[in-house]
Design goal:
The protein is of the alpha/beta class. The chain contains 16 helices and 15 strands. It is globular and about 65 Å long. It binds 4'-deoxy-4'-aminopyridoxal-5'-phosphate. Its cofactor is pyridoxal 5'-phosphate.
Length: about 450
């Protein structure tokens, strides 16, 4: 079926859409039919500039032939094979290639790779690895995880337990966790460029929670080095260093959730590299395969891996895995993606654009409804005042307006979040910002 033809638009009844107000959407749908480079085309033939790299995942831009070819080749050669007690070469090859660009460089030794099918699975996998590791080294009382208010770590039961967004938490039961405060502080940090200056003291929350629960009960602490889904919350200067020091002091593993910061978003291969702070586990997905085939990966340190390998011979060291762990077709997409990243220097390209991006975004300061602008690498946030005290309304209107005019942005609460493909050109940065400026005027 050619869905780019408007006459072929299907009925919308059956697909129960994720994270969507289904009734509202189906009354006024937005349907994307094709994509190339920086642009989508919707079912009506309108061009839409992609300001969000899909959902923070299409880092190399859309419609990459190299990925398509690799996927097709792999599908014809080996479509699927199990990775439980057997394997296939391409998953090992992909893991080896990932090991060479692992977060923190060679010295960090974060090069043991566990494959998953998504960011949520990567998070749950990392939490399980942390708890299993503590047990394996004789620290079996450590089962609690510390997360953060406003943290987003996907939608698995582990992820919602350590996450801190109320709508993800209120309906479902959770595993033992506790939460540090978030670091968003518009009062003191409004319109900071890059990392905020104020709020380092919030890292001491970790020490407070350690004292509250007892270090011998805590397996790990998980943070997004830069949180995205809550509306782009940046760590204050020195914050991650302090979290690392406290976790180390108490034998608590540190997990960086790099599902959105991994693969070049901040102008370095990983946020781990950007901040120069080395965790014990790093979760990834999204940019791992340029979003083309679902896949996630957890990078584990050799210390963690070896700790788990030291059990009795013939035992399964980590009783965990997915049917699609190391899926051959996803691995093929991933290898092709890494080749593109290397050839086009995409893992560091954002560094050269960050200044232009920052100045363009901050030009929106002064608009009556803009209360904050935040940026890091090729990530941006424009926080708006809610209309008539109703959270999210104005931002949602901007989102709808921008889409009609041909720009895809992402809205979370009162925040417009931006994360364009890393292939973006300077003129497109200007276009994104001027289109948002115009939309802000229209919805005022
Ligand atoms: N962790 C973080 C930091 C994320 O931003 C996301 C998704 N936006 C996830 C985990 C979950 O990933 P997925 O939707 O692939 O399960």
């Amino acid at each position: 079926m050619d869905y780019t033809k408007q006459s072929n638009t299907p009925t919308l009844e059956n697909f129960w859409m994720p994270f969507t107000a289904n009734r509202q959407f189906k009354a006024a749908p937005r349907l994307l039919a094709s994509a190339s480079g920086m642009y989508y085309t919707d079912v009506d033939g309108n061009t839409v500039l992609d300001g969000t790299a899909g959902l923070w995942c299409v880092n190399a831009g859309h419609g990459r032939k190299r990925i398509a070819d690799a996927v097709e080749r792999q599908l014809r050669t080996l479509d699927f094979a199990p990775t439980f007690q057997m394997g296939h070469p391409i998953a090992f090859d992909f893991a080896e290639k990932l090991g060479r660009i692992a977060p923190g460089g060679a010295a960090a030794e974060l090069d043991r790779v566990f494959f998953t099918g998504s960011g949520s699975e990567s998070v749950d996998t990392a939490l399980k690895i942390a708890i299993a590791y503590q047990r394996a080294i004789g620290q079996g009382t450590r089962s609690r995880i510390i997360g953060r208010e406003k943290g987003y770590h996907g939608v698995g039961f582990g992820g919602i337990s350590v996450g801190g967004l109320v709508n993800n938490r209120r309906v479902f039961p959770q595993i033992p966790a506790d939460h540090m405060r978030h670091t968003l502080d518009i009062e003191r940090n409004a319109f900071s460029k890059g990392l905020p200056a104020h709020g380092l003291e919030l890292a001491e929350d970790l020490e407070r929670l350690v004292q509250l629960h007892g270090p011998e009960t805590i397996a790990a602490v998980i943070v997004e080095p830069m949180s995205g889904s809550a509306g782009v919350i940046l760590p204050p200067k020195g914050y991650l260093e302090r979290i690392r020091a406290i976790s180390q002091k108490y034998g608590i593993l540190l997990i960086f959730d790099e599902v959105i910061t991994g693969f070049g978003r901040l102008g370095t291969p990983f946020a781990t590299d950007y901040f120069g702070v080395v965790p014990d586990l790093v979760t990834t997905a999204k940019g791992l395969t340029n979003g083309a085939i679902p896949m996630g990966a957890v990078f584990a340190s050799r210390k963690v891996y070896d700790g788990l390998m030291n059990g009795p011979e013939n035992a399964i060291e980590l009783f965990h895995g997915y049917t699609y762990s190391g899926h051959p077709v996803a691995s093929a997409a991933g290898i092709a993606t890494l080749e593109i990243y290397a050839e086009e220097n995409l893992l560091t390209r954002a560094a050269g654009l960050a200044e232009t991006w920052q100045e363009a975004l901050h030009s929106l300061k002064g608009h009556p409804h803009v209360v904050d602008v935040r940026n890091l690498g090729l990530v941006g946030a424009i926080e708006l005042s809610p209309r008539d005290g109703a959270p999210g309304t104005r931002a949602y209107d901007v989102f709808v307006d921008c889409f009609k005019k041909g720009l895809l942005i992402r809205v979370t609460g009162d925040v417009i979040a931006l994360s364009p493909p890393l292939i973006i050109e300077k003129e497109q940065i200007e276009t994104i910002v001027s289109m948002i400026g115009d939309a802000l005027k229209r919805v005022a």
